[in-house]
Give the backbone structure.
Amino acid sequence: MNSPFRILPFFLFILVVASCNRGATDFVFPTPVDTSTRAISLQDKRSYDFPTEGLSFDNQFDGARLNGVEQLTATSYVVSIEPENEPINPSPWYAFRLRSEKDQEIFVRIAYPNGANHRYYPKLSKDRRSWVSVDSSTIINHSDKEEITVALSISAGETLYVAGQEVINSSDVGEWLTELANKHDINVTTIGESRLGRDLRRFAITDGALNERPTIVLLSRQHPPEVTGFLAFQAFIDGLLEDPRLPELLKNYQFLVYPLLNPDGVDLGHWRHSAGGIDSNRDWATYNQPEARQVADNVVRTVRKAGSKVVLGMDFHSTWHDVFYTHDDSVQPPSALPDFTKAWLAGIEKAIGGDFKVNEDAKGIGKPTTASWFRTQFGAEGITYEIGDDTDRDFVARKGQVSAQQLIEVLLSSK
């Protein structure tokens, strides 16, 4: 007969394994949001050809959004841009490609049949890499503000991309991660798949193996059109990796980085939602969608296995202006880094200098966003880092890098 003392270690082993495999905890937020799957409308991927004019429009690339084209005159067209479903945040994303067989000037009206107001003024590119904003003199604003008309000059044999913001799709993010891994010897892993089978990727910034050091989590691109947030995120990562003080910081902290949380929405050209038809940044209570579930579980299981604790989480987004969404002093449990945010924001303001002032909006826990999830799940400091749609791109990069440098400064000075 087996001795109970021989069986005990086996059961202890099972308990340890079960504990490590347990994922993120469900929470009830003060302002709950139903994130049950909702149907989406897929755009018809095709070319709209006008042979008499030697012109074609198409949406046959990842990140495109074009639902119809109608010719009004020999030189004027209206493109229809529709959301993936409704109700939806007023962030009407569009991206399409023009090809011309002759030199011509055309007028393109960007219309939203659902009545949405225009948000993103057009940007142009010939190679989908370098982008410029259209000259304001070429834009005709309609009085109802629900649509605009833009005058475009296109040369014979030319391809011209027109988009609300720079198109950065999941393949582009993959290329960036490859370059980053080669340059900094970073190991990029796949931790799961989106609803439509696209990779959910992660990398760590750490001194050796992940261990009990406190963990900082960085997230990006839950909302497809919010490109400036991703540009700030890239600059933030560069600022971390290129700072000579990083090795010293990594003696006491480590980073988990998830660069693209909604690859389906990004590649499908969605205005806001995931392929499950919901706002990904409202799914951090019960994790109804595979993206939030897999990322949340991966964070929890990774830090638990390492014997670590998340002390800070930062999620990069875009809105109409630059702002840091933080938590006020009423939020419980107390933050694991209670003095960090105030010192960090003050450091950013001082380092940028001039007339720059930090815009902070501190609130209590409300909807199930990532920032509030960091506090409820871990007792960590949670910050939503928002960059304005039209913020100068050089300043976006500078602010991102300065933010990383000041993070290092504050955390090192607190040790």
Notes: The longest strand covers residues 310-319. The radius of gyration is 23 Å.
